[in-house]
Structures are given as structure tokens and as C-alpha cells.
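The records we work with from here on pair a chain with its fold. A complete example follows; check for yourself that the lines match position by position.
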Amino acid sequence: MAYFPEALIAAPFLRTGEGVVVSPNERSLLRLIWRHPGLSRSEVTNHTDLTQQSVYRIIDQLAERDIVSLGSPKPGLGRGQPSPTLRLNGRYAYSCGISVNTDVIGICLMDIAGNILGETSVTLREHTMAQSLDLVRRELAQLQSLNKLSESAFFGIGFAISGYHVGGTRYNAPLPLHEWSLIELGPLLADLFGKPVWVHNGANTSTVAESMFGVGRYIKHFAYLSFNYGFGGGLIGGGELLLGGNGNAGEFSGIYDEEENRRRPALQYLIERLNRNGVDVPSITYMRRNFDVNWPGVAEWVNEVVPAHNRLINAIAAIFDPQAIVYGGQVPTDLAQMLIDRTQNFSKPRYGVPHPWPKLIISEIGSDASAMGAAVIPFRSAFY
């Protein structure tokens, strides 16, 4: 039987007598309030196709359910009765984002308003899948206790894993995650945690985090490069994550043949080169925290991957035509800047007019973007 997390959503979160959390109109208003916290109720009508009467009725219903909070009016907004300001009520629900990378599992608790309640991680090395998940459960329980969070407000879990999608909730992960590969993660994790679990590729959840908390706040069309043990990414078009026909849009490493594969900008190869040059780098997490552009092997690796990197950037610009390309994942900021500085635009001006070129931007999300994006996925799927 196919697995659908929506079927496991607890009854108190559902609309009375229905199997859904919110209606389409409620969803559109919740997304608007998410994007513009503090918007007054009277201002909402200008942003929708709904009548003022419908807007007020829907907001009143959402407020009755405690999903939306009504705040103090903005001063000086027109005549008549002051209109309350609107925000999502963070106390209504929270979620957990779990991101499985090759060396560490990131954990992020987030409320429905997008506030991060707590973050931690579990080292993956030398732990089985069962041992790792047991550690995650303990860390999750500790974060819940520290924040005095009730179990009844725990809406669901977003789960991210490195690797490409092969069907259902099965992913083909890199070698260090072989035990996690090609199994139905959704039902397994839902049984373990007792909550609905939305499963995604880690690069896609990082892309979602960027769209909700990073450049996506002002750029609606961008490509996200996820530098991890492997190398992939995601695509945002019109503010929405593009998954493609098989759920693998953004698998950028797929453009390289077998010989080119080892010269793509995957961080596993940089670590191998650093270790060969006498720099003890035990993990990608360690490298990100301690990166030094002067480490022996860094410049050599950049020189080697620049051709593959440049071909990809030009392919994305030509095929997807984004406003920006974001350098994210686990890449150290200084390393991302080295690649940006070496980027070459292959297109030639015509009649002296250059082809529009995307901005190359380093992600400013300092947290584990994959876990952060995984945490917002349940709310994005069900509420906004």
C-alpha cells in the first residue's frame, strides 16, 4: 500500500469533519501571512482575489482555531474601526526536521511561524541506522523538554537524506549511507516516531530553506547548488520547488560522464586530496567549520573542478534561466567564493548586448539548511 503522510495527521489539526488541514483559500491566506507577518487584516484584500467579507470570515475562522494571532492595529491606517495585524501563532504547532548527511544527522525544531526552537546534531560515524535513529529520538526528546513543548502540538516530521529518488519514499544514497538506501523510509520512520513523516532529498530541503528564509524572500527563480559529500541541488520556479517527473530535478551530477565524475565539485574528493596532502580532515562538517584557503591541496582541487563547475553554471543559465544561482549545502563560504571568482560566462554578446546572466550568490543560511528546510516541509505541505 502506498504511503501518504497526510493520512497520519492527527485529528485535532484537521478541519472539522474533513480530512484536510486547511482549505485552498485558507492556504493562500496563510502563505501571505507567512510572507508578510504583521500585515493588517484590511491590507490582505489587496493581495488576493477574495472579497473583503470572505477574507474577514476566513481569518476569523483561522483565529478561532488558534492558527492565526490577531495583534495590535497599525496606527494611521484609514478611518473606521482599526484593523488588527496578523501573524501565524507559533504556539499552535511545531515540527522536527531531520537531515541525514554522510557524517552527521542534523535536527531542527521549528514552529509553524518559522521560528527555530532548537538545533542539534548526531554524529553518524560508526553507528548503525537503528543506533543513529535512537540517538535522534533522544536528542529530539531533550529539545522538546528544554522548550517545554507538548506532544499534542507536534505536527509532523520532515526527513531529508542525501541521494536520488527511486520511487515512493526510497532513495539511493551515497556509499556511507548504504544501510539507509532503497528502503521505504516513510512508513518506517512514521512507526518509529509516531508522527506523519514527509521524506525528501536533502538538496531539495536545502533549496526549500533557501526559498523560505534566504534569497527566496526576494528572488522567485533560482537554482541551488548543494555541495556535500556528493554534489546536487534544486530548482525554484515562481517560488515553488520543481521536482520533475521522477522527483530528481536538480541532480546536477548527472551531466558528467564517468571520467568527469571525479572532477565535479563534490566535497568527498576535496577531503581525499587534503588528507593526501597531510591535512587531517575527518569529515565535511569539520572542514566547513575549520576551512582554510591556504590548506595544501585546496587551490589544486579548485583548478581541477573549475571546468566542470563552469560547464554546469552555463548549462543552468541556458536551460533554466534563473535570476540567481545560490552556492549552498555544506560548502565553506571562502571555498564558494573561490569558485565564483573563477566562473566564466560562455555566452557572447550579440550586437554589443550581452545575454542576461544570473547572480552568483553564497547562501547566508548559517544553520543546517537541509534540516531547516526539512522542518518547514510539513507546514509547507499542509498549511502554506
User: Anything to note?
Assistant: The mean pLDDT is 95.
